[in-house]
Amino acid sequence: MALDDASAMLPALLDVEKQGWDALCAGTGADFYGERMTADGVMVLAHGHAMGRDDVVASLAEAPAWESYEITEPRAVSVGIDAVALVYRARATRGETTFEGLMTSVYTRVDGDLRLALYTQTPVVAG
């Protein structure tokens, strides 16, 4: 399936994204994203940091697990023949902390597998 057919890619993108969230909840996010991100992949996080794959892996190895998450309003956006973006709203909790944001994950196909090239978080402010 070509990555430029965004609507057809939505189920596969959601599956991969949920695998990532499940890994974050299980405390295995470092392993998951170490394998899933492209070599030059970047995460731009809500607290203002942009991290490459190695920094993401190191950070997640020390991070507490999330307890739960919910993905809503997903949509896929074609970014070209070789890339597709998944945009969605997420709400995640751990302890007394709840994070709600708009997320964008840009995937490309590498050796037949979807790989995360760019991930961004934009916090949703209640109001």
UniProtKB/TrEMBL annotation:
Biological source species: Flavimobilis marinus
Residues of the DUF4440 domain: 14-113
Name of the protein in question: DUF4440 domain-containing protein
SUPFAM superfamilies registered for this protein in UniProt: NTF2-like (SSF54427)
Domain of life the protein comes from: Bacteria
Gene3D superfamilies xref list: 3.10.450.50
Lineage: Bacteria, Bacillati, Actinomycetota, Actinomycetes, Micrococcales
InterPro entries (UniProt xref): DUF4440, NTF2-like_dom_sf
